[in-house]
Amino acid sequence: MLPPASAQRRKNQYRPVIEQVGTFDPLPNEHNEKLTSLNYERIRHWIGNGAHGFFPIHPTSYMNAWRNRRAIKENQEKSINVDAKTEDKQ
């Protein structure tokens, strides 16, 4: 079992890690759950400093996220416009 950790790039994977950013318990508990905990503050810190996972994020993932954010924003604007029109009629 390898815990989620931050290590230097292109180094032997069995060398000491820079910082452990989470834990993983592979043994199921009484609810048959395998537990994982992550320290999101430290993960954001490392991503902000250029860290990434085993593979870099695919450009299509960025495009999908951008489109989803734009669609959410447009839906919110439409709902605001509908609410404003409803108030004008009353």
Automatic annotation (TrEMBL):
Listed GO biological process terms: mitochondrial translation
Cellular component terms (Gene Ontology): mitochondrial small ribosomal subunit
Any one GO molecular function term: structural constituent of ribosome
Superkingdom of the organism of origin: Eukaryota
Keyword terms of this UniProt record: Ribonucleoprotein, Ribosomal protein
PANTHER family per the UniProt record, alphabetical: 30S RIBOSOMAL PROTEIN S16, SMALL RIBOSOMAL SUBUNIT PROTEIN BS16M
Family: Belongs to the bacterial ribosomal protein bS16 family.
Protein's name in the database: Small ribosomal subunit protein bS16m
